[in-house]
Specification:
globular, about 350 residues, 8-stranded mixed sheet, 8 strands, alpha/beta, single chain, about 35% helix, 11 helices
Length: about 350
Amino acid sequence: MRWITGLALLAALATGAQAAPAVSEADFTTTNVRFADGKTLPELRQHYRTLGTPVKNAKGEITNAVMVLHGTGGTGAQFLAPQFARLFEKGGTLDAAKYFIILPDAIGHGGSSKPSDGLKMAFPAYDYADMVKAQGLLLDHLGVKQLRLLMGTSMGCMMGFQFGVDQPGRAKAIMPLACNVIEIAGRNRMWRAMAIQAIKADPDWQGGNYTTPPLNGLRVGVALQAMASSAPLRMQADAPTRTAADTLAAQAMERGLSASADANDRIYQLEASRNYKPLARLARIRVPVTWVNSADDFINPPGVGTPDKWARSMPQGRFVLIPESAETRGHSTHTWSSFWEGELKALLARSQ
C-alpha cells in the first residue's frame, strides 16, 4: 500500500545496480462491462506494463507469463523500484529474459478507469471480484491461458486469493504477500472507515462534486496510512529522539499529500475490500501457494486468525511469517524482495 510518485520512481531507478529491463506500456479497453453492483461501464480501460517476451509451447500456449498485482493506491509501476525490480534483472529469479512479466494498474488506480475520469461517485462500486474478473479479461487479450506465477502485495495479495478462488487453475502457482483471507473487519476495517469518513466529513468534498480537493479529510487518511504502514523497530532506529520523530512525521505527511489519490478515487479504493472473504473457498485453490506475511505488519498482525492453519486448507498451501527486525519494513516488507526471494525460488521449483 505504498505510494510512489513518478519522480520518486525515476530517482529509485537511477540508483539501481543494473540497468532495468525494457518496459512497454499499453491500454486494453473492454466494452459494456457489468459490475457486481449492477452498473455497466460502456468502456473499461486497463493500463498495464510488460517486461520480457512471451514463450509458447508446441500448442501455441504462453508458458512464461507472470502477473504481479499492486496494493491499494498503487500502480504496476511500483514494482519497477530497485528493491523489487532486481527480480527482473539479468540472472534474477524472475529474469525478464526468461519470463513475460505483466504489471497491470487495477481498476480505480493509475491509468485504468476510475471515478476521477469524470463519473465521480456515479462510477460503478467495484470490488475485488470485479477487479480480478477484469484482470482475467486482460490475460485473455494477451493470449495467456494460464499464468506461470501470480504474485500480489497487500491489496494485490488479497486479489491473488480472490483470483485463485474465482478462477481456479488460471495460475500455476500463487504467491500472496501481506494480507489475510478473512473479511476486512476489526482494526483493519476501522482505519479504512475512518479515512473514508474523514473525506466525506470535509465540507470541501461536496458529495464528491468538489472543485477544491478536501485536503483536511485527505490528511487524516495520510496519517492513518503512515501508521498502518509503519515498522516499529525500524522507525525507532530511524527516529530515536522526539525531534527526529517529529521531522519524520512532517516528511511523511508532506509526501503522502503530494502523492495522494483524488479523494473520490481514494474512497473507492478503500471500499473495494468490503466484500472480500475468500476463507470458506480456499480449498478451490489446488495449485502450489506460498503465502508470506510479516510479524511487524500493523494491518495483518500475527494473532489475527490462524493463517498457518488456513494455508493448509489449500492442498498445496504454505504459510511463512517473516520475523520482526530492525531491517524489516512493517507492512511494506512485501516490496523488499530480499526478505522472501528464497521462498519465491522454492515456490517456482515445487510448481515446475
